Amino acid sequence: MGSPEGRFHFAIDRGGTFTDVFAQCPGGHVRVLKLLSEDPANYVDAPTEGIRRILEQEGGMLLPRDRPLDTSRIASIRMGTTVATNALLERRGERVALLVTRGFRDLLHVGTQAREDLFDLAVPMPEVLYEEVLEVDERVVLYRGEPGAGTPVKGCTGDLLEVQQPVDLGGLRGKLEGLLSRGIRSLAVVLMHSYTWAQHEQQVGALAQELGFTHVSLSSEAMPMVRIVPRGHTACADAYLTPTIQRYVQGFRRGFQGQLKDVQVLFMRSDGGLAPMDSFSGSRAVLSGPAGGVVGYSATTYQVEGGQPVIGFDMGGTSTDVSRYAGEFEHVFEASTAGVTLQAPQLDINTVAAGGGSRLFFRSGLFVVGPESAGAHPGPACYRKGGPVTVTDANLVLGRLLPASFPCIFGPGEDQPLSPEASRKALEAVATEVNSFLTNGPCPASLLSLEEVAMGFVRVANEAMCRPIRALTQARGHDPSAHILACFGGAGGQHACAIARALGMDTVHIHRHSGLLSALGLALADVVHEAQEPCSLPYTPETFVQLDQRLSRLEEQCVDALRAQGFPRPQISTESFLHLRYQGTDCALMVSAHQHPATARSPRAGDFGAAFVERYMREFGFVIPDRPVVVDDVRVRGTGRSGLRLEDVPKAQTGPPRVDKMTQCYFEGGYQETPVYLLGELGYGHKLLGPCLIIDSNSTILVEPGCQAEVTETGDIRISVGAEAPSTVGAQLDPIHLSIFSHRFMSIAEQMGRILQRTAISTNIKERLDFSCALFGPDGGLVSNAPHIPVHLGAMQETVQFQIQQLGADLHPGDVLLSNHPSAGGSHLPDLTVITPVFWPGQTRPVFYVASRGHHADIGGITPGSMPPHSTTLQQEGAVFLSFKLVQGGVFQEEAVTEALRAPGKIPGCSGTRNLHDNLSDLRAQVAANQKGIQLVGELIGQYGLDVVQAYMGHIQANAELAVRDMLRAFGTSRQARGLPLEVSAEDHMDDGSPIRLRVQINLSQGSAVFDFSGTGPEVFGNLNAPRAITLSALIYCLRCLVGRDIPLNQGCLAPVRVVIPRGSILDPSPEAAVVGGNVLTSQRVVDVILGAFGACAASQGCMNNVTLGNAHMGYYETVAGGAGAGPGWHGRSGVHSHMTNTRITDPEILESRYPVIVRRFELRLGSGGRGRFRGGDGVVRELLFREEALLSVLTERRAFQPYGLHGGEPGARGLNLLVRKDGRTVNLGGKTSVPVYPGDVFCLHTPGGGGYGDPDDPAPQPPGSPQQLPAFPERGSVYEYRRAQEAV
């Protein structure tokens, strides 16, 4: 980044709180500056002000703020900005209208139909970005050559399409003019199948521009990838954000003479590349700020450390960004920010809710850090503005931050130093809560000092930040301990040693400009131009020429675009990618062939097939050799090497390092004398033993005891992390270690899940993530499980405890058990549970158990998929395992399990499993996941001892018990205060009239309750019977919702509760009763009854709307959203899954491309939610037109009994299943049936609405909708997306 021409190069990171300026000045020296991003009393724009100050300081002359700056001495400006992210978070973008294919008016509102928070009854969801919707009369479908079909046209993917209805531009013109008259100037155009046939969108766009719309975003241009929902969100984000960005850019330009005409101005995009100012768009801008930091450490730490993989750790005020670099940027191509799913290349930056401003709580015996944040205003308690206690306050109390090293910008007048006294006072209030619990709680223990409490919170925060790092690395088959930790951001230096030590890393690298690394990354970044287009070719020798031609054309586009920006051809490089997947799967990988040169059996651009197989094997642990590979997209990334490099070299050491002062820092065991060094005074070769503090103007680095820091040749700090001094942890309850063990136990279940997902082969487990993994104590009691699939909650515990009772002493090392029987704790037969007892030297009985439950796509029975709508006995639903040894003496019993899976074929009308290969592969994957759990718990025992680990298994269960007891006491006390009895009851019915009755008796003194289902109807002749485990899962789900905050979901939740379920009832049927409908339907009614008894909210749709379609060569299954119930203070959410399911729905374009159906309508069923002071959510209308003969099966409820309203609220509308035959005849199918359908028939599904809450005529003001608050940080990244996908089952 030298300046031979004697001009300045600026790199500026405009963050939410601070703006960092990095300037290379004439002569090569560097100036850095940090200033507030918003300071309207002193300047209009922070980046402009930063440039002005540096020009003023370097030039020695006054530059007035009210005059445009002279640009003659400025060569380039590079900027990363949070303008787009902030506009998205705060919903302050442009007014936008959505133009969408008729029938899909509410498609982006419904989205995937999954809710964000499983346990929040208000179902808070971010609102859509558009203000109005216009439905466009047009339709394009994939060509299948049916009789009467029109002439096919060829899409850009090579697919043949049929234009069923051309665009009605005449009818659209008047509607667009109406939008203009209402002040809307920006449009998002999203039409079905426009990724391959863009002509209709282009016609609409041309008309809109002719009429005078200032911005038109076509989804086919914003991101031409299949799947209309994320493509539509991307187009909306582009239309919403790009005008905002353009306004910011225009305002920035006005601060300079000539509006920066002769200055190269580049903006950082989400993918880590720079783009010219004029082509910087909204959908590519949301990670503009954080991307600079990733580029920064990739260009510095990775190079300096000899190519060892690096974990980026950027800890700020409200959140922490975690990323990985190992020689190439790791991108994701679909990710959510602030509730908006974007289809665009983005660096995989994982943002978690743990920063310096994260708030500290003590809840039911547990230390909790975040996710709530103090923000910049009022900020932590030490900011002197009445803020809450935070991680920053804990570090200040421990002496790890020095007030003297901070400017005096705090307090109401922004002229005071940090206040350690305010931190101590705020933390003392929490310490009082902690010590009250230790004195009066279930396990009295010695009191904790203020410093011990502060240290506890710091340790819990560190463990919370380790979890996403473990997930990010292990998800892709990497070992976190093999990485270097690159630490940057204002708060990271205080935690880096502890984080690295916890993850087994031995090196921390902190760049000398770590406080401004994002700005430095901008200075070192390259200019990038990308070209991408969709494809649907098979990856075979016959298509290699076509693929090469398409890649060459895209490469030419990239090179031309970069040459137009002034890059000579030698400075331009290109990299080609193919987006590949195995046919019949959804797991596509964007692969480059740069490490796989072309062969005689590959495209000229490289051996993409070998690259795909290698990466698939690394990430998933297997390949599918005989499965064809499909190309979904072709992409080329062109890079213009900027040639900008750092030239300032730090000084060498001149004698020993000078100690600026001595201070007292608190570590495990007490205070220690800690020297303080100033980073600016350190030189190459200086070595500093921990403990010590290294301070510069932007950050404080803590070198912990046992670690050593040295200054590198480039002036950076490299810390060698020593082993932690052994500490003694006893079996007695310690709330700090309770919180840490809570994270560790959950991390074990999460890592088991990652292994299962990586090694399984079926779509259900690998892609739909329909599985749970869990850890159990020696009594079979649940300790932790992940993910939180509602219908699995607590159910596996029943399975494990049944095996302990059934087998007793017949459990031996090397045994692994398989079970799915409802009377043994099973939910329904396709959910196969694999249990491994774990033995320990010197112990005769298992010391703990691990288990994994996965949904197998088929295990036999009377229908494919093993979920028949009309089964009457358990045998008709597939293979049954009561207590089966899958592995005996370490040997996998393949022959025996194969025989059992084929056994249903011996029953008349039934088949054995239809996919034995996938069953066996997935069972092996479940065994492997259990082995991972055993290894991880073994490591925990090795660290702490068996007695301590088992004790904390009990303590974490007791903690969940305490939270539920507190909730029950609070509920009982509230009723008592209003003169109401401590007994509540509710009753509801299945559509066949079977009652579900519940009476709950609260014991106020004990904080306990009896849940008595006596009076519930008998077992039914059909499959709505729900095994006992289902009722317990529903109960745990409801208890967690009623507690209203995160608690460990384990056996302890049910400890304060006695559950009475009459034997032989629909909730505890005989062993041979059919149960498949109980799992998906009756479970919802149980939830309705429990929440109704507590008066928590009105009934939600109470159904999963199960729809199955199949014939000899295809099968498809979906569940469909409905309305959520309203409650005290919120309207019900419309078009969302509720309670015991959260399954995502297949995107309409994917559905139409893979199955012989056309989605005619998918929109809200307006008015179906119950009226009330708070109205119930609306259901949806979904219409499927069939293009082939098939068998349609529906398994639904709430077709007879309406979802109830509460406290005067009206019930939601019943659901309705209609079949419209091709000849126009309409038939009501009822709630449960199988019926043949033929080409031209249409299935019309009307799902139930949610009940209303409160009197509709109540004049009290209503809120604008259900709560829409977004978190103060945009949680994002592949780890977050994985968790969302797991919970969408």
Write structural notes for this entry.
- The chain is an alpha+beta fold.
- The strands form 13 sheets. An 8-stranded mixed beta sheet has the order 20-15-14-23-24-35-34-31, sandwiched between helices. Strands 37-36-40-39-38-41-42 form a 7-stranded antiparallel beta sheet, sandwiched between helices. The protein has a 6-stranded mixed beta sheet with strand order 3-2-1-4-12-13, sandwiched between helices.
- Strand 43 (983-989) and strand 44 form a beta hairpin.
- Helix 12 (450-474) runs parallel beside helix 17.
- The protein is globular.
- Residues 1262-1272 have low confidence and may be disordered.
Give the topology.
Layout (H helix, E strand, L loop, with lengths): L7 E7 L3 E7 L5 E7 L9 H14 L14 E8 L1 H8 L5 E6 L5 H4 L21 E5 L2 E4 L10 E2 L5 E6 L3 H13 L4 E5 L8 H13 L3 E4 H4 L5 H26 L10 E5 L5 E3 L11 H12 L1 H4 L5 E6 L4 E6 L5 E2 L2 E3 L2 E3 L3 E2 L2 E3 L5 E6 L2 E8 L17 H7 L22 H21 L9 H25 L9 E5 L7 H7 L4 E4 L6 H8 L2 E8 L9 H21 L7 E11 L6 E4 L15 H13 L8 E12 L20 E7 L2 E9 L8 E3 L2 E4 L4 E4 L4 E4 L5 E4 L14 H25 L3 H4 L4 E6 L5 E5 L8 H13 L8 E4 L11 E8 L9 E8 L28 E5 L2 E2 L1 H9 L13 H29 L1 H32 L5 E7 L5 E9 L4 E5 L15 H16 L13 E4 L15 H19 L11 E6 L2 E6 L28 H7 L2 E8 L15 E7 L3 E6 L20 E5 L5 E3 L3 E6 L4 E5 ...
Helix pairs in contact: 2-7, 4-5, 8-14, 10-11, 10-12, 12-17, 17-21, 17-22, 19-23, 21-22, 22-23, 23-24
